[in-house]
Specification:
heterodimer, A: Rossmann fold, three-stranded antiparallel beta sheet, 8 helices, B: mainly alpha, 12 helices, globular
Chain lengths: 248, 275
């Protein structure tokens, strides 16, 4: 298992649980019948005992069905979700690619670049020195002073991507990033992702696009219902995953 | 275990307070510029636009002026009741808006918290900065109104800077505490307007506590209310209303205690917010 390269993130027997409050359709009658007055919740065991190492200049693919815990594992790696047990060690804090949650639809694209950049940890001066580069990369020169709510969803996605990739972290987590924009932008963003990959220490890529996973990952991890089902060569793991999902 | 493993740190533990504060300082632009942008966005759809930041406090003062200055007379024991009232209302609303907004700053930014890693204390800090900036026009209006009621600026007015600083510290501490509680118990935001309605009467906003309360014990009990302390100190600065040392001590003590407790509570739970 030792690839000889330095470990950047070590996930050791990580368990992530969270509570989901139920919204029962029950009326007064059922309330009395069940004898429960409080809110009921279910504990979702989204990630159960996952262990894996991420190495320097490695791209790890993360695949699995919807709801298998991929995004939850990424969130736990950034420290966004607490672990129920286990540990996650890292040489620096991994970051998810994307700032769409910081953007304000009432404000112009230019002001949103400032807000998004600040959310990513730039200072005002740092954002301003990168402003033109971000606008040009997003291809939004003509629309940059219009409010964000007048943008099409593709334009929004391009802006989000352009801001998010302006800062390249040491450990980058990408959750389905390449499906944005038109053909032209997709080609440019694939290029940018490669740049990001070569600059970042390590990358974790979540995708349902198996061609992309096989094309760009050094190793692939397959999550199934919160458990690590396979970890290894992209070709083998993807083939095993596809075999398990294909209708017989 | 190779040598490089030694550099790995536990990502699920909060960073020590000094490292945390250094990171907050490095990212201070976020807490200063984002609320300013949000204030702009607030009134963008309205016909009068940014003018509302001035009109809103002006209308608030005008309504109190009409009801308590013209229609009802509650001026017992106060020389310049109108000035007294306006200072009370404006200063009370500053703290109310900061604290009520802080209660929702975590739930409102859940999407951001779940996708971007940053010290969460920047969110209540942005709330305090934004509401304090929004308060600036009301402050200017209050000063103008106080002069209009016959007061003349004196050196005593300079002490208002100290009162505002103490109130800022107190508001910040309260915002940290309320933001933490509001993140765990969203019901707090329903409760707060009622708490503030109670505080409104317990802070002597529209009447003079000194004129109604004669017992020394109860006057000191009022000094335990930090909003009363701040309002009373602001009135001393602008109107020359009496203030005793208990009130000043109360204002300063609340500020320091709330800031320390608020920071400790918030920092400890930083990584669990939004989970």
């Amino acid at each position: 298992m030792d690839s000889g390269r330095a470990v950047t993130v070590r996930v050791d027997d990580a368990h992530v649980y969270y509570r989901v409050y139920e919204d029962p359709a029950a009326g007064i009658k059922q309330l009395f019948a069940s004898g429960q007055a409080g809110r009921r919740y279910q504990t979702i065991r989204a990630v159960r005992g996952v262990s894996l190492d991420l190495h320097e200049s490695e791209t790890l693919g993360l695949i699995g069905a919807n709801g298998s815990g991929k995004s939850t594992l990424l969130a736990a790696m950034t420290g966004l979700l607490p672990l129920a047990s286990g540990t996650i060690l890292g040489r620096s804090r991994p970051s998810l690619l994307g700032v769409s949650a910081a953007l304000r639809s009432a404000l112009s694209g230019r002001r949103n670049i400032l807000i998004g950049g600040l959310a990513l940890g730039f200072t005002r001066a740092e954002v301003e020195s990168r402003m033109d580069g971000i606008i040009d990369f997003a291809g939004l020169r003509a629309a940059i002073d219009r409010p964000l709510r007048t943008y099409s969803s593709g334009m929004r996605a391009r802006l989000n991507f352009a801001i998010a990739t302006a800062r390249i972290p040491d450990i980058l987590l990408i959750d389905e990033a390449l499906s944005v924009g038109d053909e032209d932008f997709r080609a440019r963003s694939a290029e940018r992702i490669d740049e990001v990959r070569s600059a970042a220490g390590s990358v974790v890529l979540v995708s349902h696009n198996m061609a992309e996973i096989e094309g760009s990952c050094d190793r692939v991890a397959w999550l199934d219902d919160g458990v690590l089902k396979a970890l290894g060569e992209p070709g083998e793991v993807v083939a095993a995953y596809l075999a398990s999902t294909s209708p017989r | 275990m190779s040598d490089s493993d030694q550099q790995l740190v536990d990502l699920t533990r909060p960073s020590p307070p000094t490292v945390y504060l250094a990171e907050v300082w490095r990212r201070r632009d976020f807490a200063i510029l984002v609320p300013v942008q949000d204030l702009r966005a607030q009134n963008m759809g309205s016909a009068l636009g940014q003018l509302w930041h001035l009109l809103n406090p002006a209308l608030m003062v005008a309504v109190y002026f009409l009801i308590f200055g013209v229609i009802i007379d509650t001026s017992r024991g106060v020389d310049n009741f109108l000035g007294f009232l306006i200072v009370g209302v404006v200063w009370f609303h500053l703290t109310q808006r900061v604290v009520q907004d802080a209660a929702v700053c975590i739930p409102r930014n859940l999407g951001l918290i779940r996708s971007v890693q940053f010290p969460r204390i920047l969110l209540p800090a942005a709330t305090v900065n934004g509401q304090t900036a929004a308060f600036a026009p009301a402050l200017v209006l209050a000063l103008a109104a106080v002069i209009a009621t016959g007061e003349r600026p004196s050196l005593r007015w300079l002490a208002l800077i100290g009162v505002l600083a103490a109130q800022f510290v107190f508001n910040f501490g309260a915002a940290l505490l309320v933001a933490r509680i509001g993140a765990a118990v969203p019901d707090l935001r329903q409760l707060l307007p009622h708490v503030f309605r109670l505080l409104f009467y317990a802070s002597g906003v529209i009447f003079s506590v000194d004129a109604f309360v004669t017992s020394e014990f109860w006057r000191r009990a009022f000094a335990l209310n930090p909003i009363y302390d701040v309002i009373t100190c602001a009135r001393w600065c602008l109107l020359g209303e009496p203030v005793d040392s208990w009130v000043v001590a109360g204002m300063l003590a609340w500020g320091v205690v709330l800031l320390v407790v608020g920071f400790a509570v918030f920092w400890r739970s930083d990584q669990r917010l939004g989970a």
